Amino acid sequence: MSDQSITPIEPTEEYGDDFGSGKRLSVGSFRHVFAEDHWEWSDELYHLFGYRPGEVQPSAELLRRHQHRGGRSDIVEDLVSGFETGRTFSVFHRIVPRGGGLRSIVVVADRVLGERDSVAGIVGYCVDLTDLIAGQRDEFFTSELAEILRGRSAIEQAKGVLMGLFRLNADHAFGLLRWRSQETNVKVRDIAAQLLAELHTLPPISQELRRHVEHLVLTVHDRIPRR
User: Fold this and answer.
1) Which InterPro entries did the record assign (predicted)?
2) Residue 89 has pLDDT above 70, yes or no
3) Which strands, in side-by-side order, build the sheet including 89-95?
4) Which of 51, 110, 170, 211 could potentially form a cystine with 55 if both were Cys, beta carbons 3.0 to 4.6 Å apart?
5) What structural domains does the chain harbor?
């Protein structure tokens, strides 16, 4: 299974997390491995549901327990069925955290691929929109936020490409994308998306490089420090 570890998101200006409202979004991340029925939550997601990090074991039942009874669909079924689209998907739900209250969240997730490109799980983010959408239509903000997070995914992928090709670190790779954005007056996410779309135009890699990459992929686990 590909190792897509959970990294809590720090809202940044580059990703437009406040929609220009001056309000910061609370974002938590999660991961679900199907075969083991194992869930992982970031600290932010525990807080969103009203818990201290590690206080409870995340599970499908826990998610359902906190879903608002007036919900239009089952939150877990939405997550599990969403990966069938083959692309990033988003769903809108309301939850009741421990201690009461009502929170409006949008969940944006994508598939985690395992051996032979089989779907091994899902990884994604829960974004608290409660304060942001007060008095506004939920559907508008759901679509807007989904677009922003899809842009974030493209930026991260483009950074990875530049890091691999030019042996840059993450900051320098993003700096290169931002420089082209500023020079051309085009959004960073659009620069990144177009770069990814045109990767197929590059000439094929040499057989020697391909063998090195294959060897790296097949043996990398042997060099991970034991904990």
Assistant:
1) ANTAR (IPR005561), CheY-like_superfamily (IPR011006), PAS-like_dom_sf (IPR035965), WH-like_DNA-bd_sf (IPR036388)
2) no
3) 38-41, 26-33, 119-128, 103-113, 89-95
4) 51
5) 26-135 (3.30.450.20), 141-223 (1.10.10.10)
